[in-house]
Amino acid sequence: MSLKTKKIPAKRTKTISEKTFSEFFAGIGLVREGLVRTGWRCVYANDISAKKQQAYEARFGVDEHFHLHDITDANAVVTRMPGQPFLATASFPCVDLSLAGNYRGLAGKESSTFFGFIDVVKSLGSRQPQVIMVENVTGLLTSRGGEDFADAVRALSKLGYWLDAFVLDASHFTPQSRPRVFIIAVLSHLKPVEKARAGWLWPPQTLSPLRSAAIMRAKRDIELETGWVEFELPNPPSLQIQLKDVIAVGDDQAWWSEHEVLRHYAMMSDLHRGQVDKIVASKADWTGTIFRRIREGQMRAEVRFDGIAGCLRTPKGGSAKQIVISIRSGRMKMRWMSPAEYAALQGVPDFPLVGSEIQQLWGFADAVCVPAIEWIDQQVLTPLYEQGLKSIKPERKKSFA
């Protein structure tokens, strides 16, 4: 595939001093939590939720960094932003990329705020970040037949960024199924030259857990004004902790009544009920999770038997809340998963819990898995920062000492 001749934005000033970043759609701050552990310093955070700001500031303190403001007001955001952070992160709303948002995609009220972020970056002019990390659900890859993903990466490309994309699942780090697509965008001087192409070769020589056939097809089919790159990424690590290490099973938990347990037991399919019966009969200790789903017009209690929790979801209703099922010495118990367990499954067991329980569940479910962010930082973001420092002439670098 040939690259059409189009005007590329002017080369940005390679001004790098501190390891700084700005986070957009900051939520309760779990992207920041993952980055500050390796020396990144947040200089600006933006979100529109006052309740999430409350949790964010309970963890990081009240300072001038958090800007409670609508991101679509680009002028106000840019005016508030200090300097030229090296990195910007954007975990924009996913609701319109799923059934909950009727699959409206990037045209939906919530998910369309991605373009508010694009307007902010464009308005920064010479202060544009040299690296951008965008995060969202894997539905971004398929929304509107892949057109939303294409629109997103083309918007970044028009600003002068070269792009890579991959899918990373939180289940490599915590016992939670949470695959997310990450887009890494870099200005021209940071792209890995040997891995940069205007188009993308097909078929790929290898597929990995990070770059599926869907990712590689997108690289083949989506034409950018800049191009695609591919960062060298190892396979993610194997999970080192189990669900039973995260879930509390003591009698002091808010276990349901026997009536409620039996009601949910009756909601199970014959297959799931049979598997539960075998565990009960074995007298083995076992911990699992349940989601309630409508299947063929009936409410079903669907049990996970693979040792990991389902993806944490914002508690918009009973079907979105995750249920803990614990079997000990032949006795079956159930309850709602707690905010503390949500925090642990996102990799932050000591994160402060503020506000109502619903507020806490919402904040953690509408966030990222911290160890996954740490891994991306170690493999991509910090190496890019170090590469950026090396790209500056010694005399210029000295002026920032």
TrEMBL record:
Q: Which residue windows are transmembrane per the record?
A: none
| An annotated GO BP | DNA restriction-modification system
UniProt keyword annotation of tRNA-binding present: no
Name the keywords, alphabetized. Methyltransferase, Restriction system, S-adenosyl-L-methionine, Transferase
Name the EC number(s): 2.1.1.37
Keyword Methyltransferase attributed: yes
Catalytic positions? C94
What does the record give under GO molecular function? DNA (cytosine-5-)-methyltransferase activity
Q: Which Pfam families match?
A: DNA_methylase
* Reaction(s) catalysed by this chain's protein: a 2'-deoxycytidine in DNA + S-adenosyl-L-methionine = a 5-methyl-2'-deoxycytidine in DNA + S-adenosyl-L-homocysteine + H(+)
Look up the domain of life of the source: Bacteria
Please report which protein family the annotation says this sequence is part of: Belongs to the class I-like SAM-binding methyltransferase superfamily. C5-methyltransferase family.
Entry's PANTHER family?
TRNA (CYTOSINE(38)-C(5))-METHYLTRANSFERASE (PTHR46098:SF1)
Q: What is this protein called?
A: DNA (cytosine-5-)-methyltransferase
